[in-house]
């Protein structure tokens, strides 16, 4: 079964409060055994435009990635992220 991934591009607008989102997101991700493959590390824009921060989260399947996003705990995290940052979150199925 192919894995699922969240690909997230973020511009943090409130650095002081953003950790509140990170804590809520971590709580929501834990039951899904999600694993961070990239989390705000160094990056270079070599084509197009981009946000400041990039995150890649791995799930055991695409279905689990969607389920986590739609979970009640992650809905709480979404509201916080939207207060403290601008972002795009894409859920993709990995290559088999």
Structural domain count: 1
Q: Can you tell me the overall shape?
A: globular
Order of helices and strands: EHEEHHE
How much of the sequence is in beta strands?
Answer: 25-35%
Oligomer: single chain
- Give the spatial strand order of the biggest sheet: 2-3-1-4
Count, helices: 3
What is the share of helical residues? 25-40%
User: Sheet with the most strands?
Assistant: 4 strands, antiparallel
> What is the number of strand segments?
4
Unreliable segments (pLDDT under 50, ≥5 consecutive)?
A: none
Give the mean pLDDT: 96
In CATH, the topology is named Alpha-Beta Plaits
What structural class do the secondary elements suggest?
A: alpha+beta
> What is the CATH top level name?
Alpha Beta
> How large, in whole angstroms, is the Cα Rg?
13 Å
Distance between the termini: 7 Å
**In CATH terms, what is the architecture?**
2-Layer Sandwich
Kindly list the characteristics that best describe this protein.
single chain; 96 residues; alpha+beta; Alpha-Beta Plaits; four-stranded antiparallel sheet; 4 strands
């Amino acid at each position: 079964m192919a894995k699922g991934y969240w690909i997230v591009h973020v511009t943090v607008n409130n650095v002081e409060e953003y950790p509140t989102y990170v804590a809520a997101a971590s709580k929501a991700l834990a039951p899904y055994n999600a694993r961070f493959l990239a989390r705000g590390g160094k990056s270079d824009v070599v084509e197009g435009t981009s946000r400041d921060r990039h995150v890649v989260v791995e799930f055991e399947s695409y279905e689990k990635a969607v389920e986590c996003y739609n979970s009640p705990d992650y809905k709480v995290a979404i509201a916080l992220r939207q207060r403290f940052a601008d972002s795009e979150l894409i859920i993709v199925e990995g290559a088999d």
